[in-house]
Amino acid sequence: MAEVIALVTPVMDVLLQLLMKEANSFKRLRKEVKSLKDELECVQCFLKDAEERSEKEDMRDGVKVWLKQVREEAFHIEDVIDLYILHVAQHCHSRGFVGLLRRTARMFKALKPRYNFISEIKEIKASLREIKDRGERYGFNSSAPESSNRVTELEHCGIRLGSLFIEDDEFLDLHSTRDELMTRLVEGAPTRTVISLLGMGGIGKTTLARKAYDAKVVKAHFDCCAWITVSQSYNLEKLLGTMAMHLCPEFKIDVIEELIGRLRNFLETKRYLIVFDDVWQVDFWGVIKHALPSNSRGSRIIVTTRNDMVTAACQEDSCHLVKKLSPLSHEIAWQLFCKNAFRFKLEGQCPQELETLSLEIVRKCQGLPLVISSVAGLLSTKEKNVSEWQKLNKTLNRQFETNPNLPSISKILSLSYNNLPSYLKPCFLYFGIFPRCRLITETTLYRHWIAEGFIKEKTDKTLEQVAEEYLNELILRNLVQVQDVLCGGGSDRLCQVHDLMRVIILSRADELGFYQIVDEKKSTVRGKSRRLSVYNYMKDRMKIDDISGVRSVLLFNIDGQLANVFMDNWLEKCKLLKVLDFTNVPIDRLPKGLGDLFHLRHLNLRNTKVKALPKSIGKLQNLQVLDLINTSLRKLPIEINMLQNLRHINGFYYDQRLGFCFDAFQGLKIHEGIGCLGELQTLWHVEVNENSIGLIKELEMLTQLRVLGILKLPAELGDALCASIAKMNHLERLLLVSNSEAEIIDLQAISSPPLSLGILSFMGRLPKISNWILKLSNLHSLAFSFTRFSDDPLKRLQNLPNLEYLYLYKAYDGDEIHIEEGGFQKLKLLELCDLNEVRVIKIGRGSLPLLEELRIGACPQLKEAPSNIQHLRNLRVVEVSEMPMEFVLAMQPDGDQCCWKVKHVPNVWSYYKFGRDRFDAL
User: Fold this and answer.
1) What is the pLDDT, as a whole number, of residue 107?
2) Whole-angstrom Cα distance, residue 586 to residue 34?
3) Which of 394-398, 517-521, 721-725 reaches the highest mean pLDDT?
4) DSSP type of residue 568
5) Is the full-model pTM beyond 0.70?
6) 921 with 909: CB under 8 angstroms?
7) One biological-process term from Gene Ontology (predicted)?
8) What whole-number distance in Å separates Cα of residue 742 and Cα of residue 739?
């Protein structure tokens, strides 16, 4: 329901804004505005009422039909608005409108769309009135009956029961965690302690808590115990009453304040254990803590939750421990599966003929204990033959939704989705538009969400910053899985959703007409859909019923012929497109009519063969993102300077065949005039030369710039670049590459650097490390390549307070690296490559306390292990490549007399060069 509100509300808001604007200039429209505004507001109120009721009871079919009609009317309104704006824009941008006569002609041409618009508005008003009348018949203004709430509570209780009563032999891999939790409960400081069990649905939080709670040694340790299931829409009075019933049944009080007081007084002299299972609301702890005295008697409170923000709230005024549960390892998942699937026969052993299928089924369960147990339990009732198991494997995703023997899985995972606020639901549904198992960069998500209109403006924040808040909230709710990637280009997060959650996403998206997916299994698009995603489709034809209302087209790994068919036959029908993504599609051209897509906001041509942009691109006045990374395009047309809403230009080409050298990198050549693009935040990478002084000076006008990359930078432009950089108060990422290995990058003239800089990379000669670099308190990633410092750069850099990543490649010509005592307190990854003269690495005590990864390569004079490496207790990976054999042996845990220095490191890898392109492990 909330997703309908999220889709409908922005459309209605835009319509009202447009109506108010047009009514001021067109009298006939004024009388329509007020009545339509009333109808819109009434429907929005009905939607909120319907949402509240849908959370308490199953929706009747009639209500579902009503919601579908509301959604379709919202789509119709959006079409009317966008078509009207398109018609007006086409008249405004037609060439030759100069002088009085042509301005008059333009005015008369604009009248027809306005009259058509009035007719459309009348139709919309009539449709909304019918929808409102039907909403009144469904009684959305009245409150839902009390009994419906009991149904929801019973249903929720049923879902929890499956987790409460899992047998011990199904409890594989949680025994050690249970023992650890029990120790935390019965030992430790007498301070009242909250223990939060955190993780996604089905991960085993409730099971773990119950096993520890039911243990005899735990029950005997505490004076009183209570298990309270909280759920999504808990009632505080009922919850306190349940606590009282468990702890002190003689209480018969209904007033919340009195209940809290009596519970507090009762528990004041007790050592108590209370479990709050399935907590969703962040404000829960702020209320319930008042009933739980901190009495220094060793009391313990367990909270199970999917929401990291709940755990953060529990930390505020209490001793607090957090245990985040992860999916089972493949080995343990396999043991759990076999123990349950073959428990009645074969003594828990998988027959050889079923092993491949069984492994595939286990993989689909992705380490969730509840899912593995449920699927294996279902298979235990099936015949143990290949055909029977193949049948279930092929339909496993559908089984999660429909099989009565797997009732709780879909409901458990759906709870997390249903609990999302309306503004997050479209963002979360958007994950399903990308191919399965694809890791999506956070930047890609932000730009797509913004182009789609999902992100609401907030005062003093960019849309990108708001989008980051949305993503962080999804991560904190354990709905999005994240991999942090720290590399020379900076840090970025790669995101994906669990496969089973993706099943929920695709099902809900299909219900809403949110998008349709075409792949090797589906080649026909039925009905209307707002978004179309095509991937792994290698046929040259596809059937689409109606593409006119599509706002987004994403193509992934498809045949080039199909892409050309799309551009030649379908693109002209998609007049209202906002997102066009050709990532990895082998096209070499764009249609000349690209500029007719007036509403286009996001154009991604990454990894295509496109060589040029049509001049009509200057008509795309709403374009926000232009991604040209790894294309054959080398120069932007001057018409780019007309795009006043452009926020991001990404374009560079890296020729991997040449290796890491200056000639391998090519950027975009752009015309002067770029300074007029006041909204520009990203310019990555622009290629310059000695004649680009005007362009460099213009950069100071780009005051919103966050990301800047410059290639082929000649030394004589240094002072002008320093002056421009000093005015970029929001700059977060800067890459500067000189014209050659001998060319000097002179940035000494910067006196007041942008303190917001977090990622800084140099490629080219630097006389020394400038003082302004040492002032960058927010710098977390720093890379030097070909700088050829004569003095040890690590001595200069070791006091940067937030540096996490440091990369040196042919950056230092000295023979000793010395990290002094206490240096680099935040560094996590250090890479030292091609330092030809270095003979010694000294690591002072107390330095590098957080270092996780050390990579050393191609330092031919370095033959001894870094001193004091044994004190880097957080070190997890040591990677050695192209190093002298003496150094390789010194860095082996089972090597020579120095082996004890790296015995604490779990992963030590050594490589030697093999041929031109690959490194193989020794």
Assistant:
1) 43
2) 51
3) 721-725
4) I
5) yes
6) yes
7) defense response to other organism
8) 8
Packing angle of the helix pair 256-267, 236-247 (nearest 10 deg):
30
CB 762 within 8 A of CB 787: yes
Report whether the peptide linkage leading into residue 685 is cis, meaning its omega lies within 30 degrees of zero.
yes
Neighbours of 114 (CB within 10 A): 16
Residue pLDDT, tens place only, 254-269: 678 888 888 999 999 9
Amino acid making up residue 772: W
- Residues facing residue 519 across a β-bridge: 522
DSSP three-state, residue 16: helix
Cα radius of gyration rounded to whole Å, the chain: 31
- Split at pLDDT 50, 70, 90, the class of 370 is confident
Kindly report the length of the chain: 922
Identity (one letter) of the amino acid at 756?
A: S
The pLDDT of residue 4 is 56
CB proximity list for 279: less than 8 A, separation 6 or greater: 230, 285, 303, 304, 305, 307, 310
Q: How many CA atoms are closer than 13 Å to the CA of 171, on its beta-carbon side?
A: 22
Give how far the C-alpha of residue 136 lies from the chain's centroid of Cα atoms, to the nearest Å. Answer: 40
CATH topology assigned to domain 660-778? 3.80.10
> Closest by alpha carbon to 716, among 739, 684, 682, 750?
739
Task: Tell me what pLDDT residue 19 has.
Answer: 62
Note the pLDDT of residue 540: 58
**Position 366 pLDDT exceeds 90:** no
Tokens of 26: 């067109």
- Mean pLDDT, residues 901-921 taken together: 67
Q: What are the C-alpha distances in Å from 701 to residues 45, 747, 780, 836?
A: 45, 19, 26, 42
Q: Where would I find the beta strands (DSSP E) of 297-365?
A: 300-305, 319-324
Q: How far is CA 895 from CA 210, 326, 594, 630, in A?
A: 47, 34, 63, 44
Superfamily grouping for domain 149-324? P-loop containing nucleotide triphosphate hydrolases (3.40.50.300)
What is the Cα–Cα distance from 848 to 186, expressed in whole angstroms?
Answer: 36
Give the DSSP per-residue string, 737-758: EESSTT-B---TT-SS--TT--
Domain 420-512 has CATH 3.40.50.300: no
The pair of structure tokens assigned to 771 is: 């003082």
The span from the CA of 469 to the CA of 312, in Å, is 16
Q: Which pair of tokens denotes residue 383?
A: 């015949």
Largest CA distance in the chain: 95
CA angle 552/558/560 to nearest 5° reads: 105
Q: What three-state secondary structure class fits 187? A: coil
Kindly tell me if the per-residue pLDDT of 835 is higher than 70.
yes
Query: What whole-number distance in Å separates Cα of residue 677 and Cα of residue 625?
Result: 13
523 C-beta neighbours (distance < 10 Å), count: 14
Neighbours of 264 (CB within 10 A): 14
Q: How far apart are alpha carbons 43 and 8 in whole angstroms?
A: 10
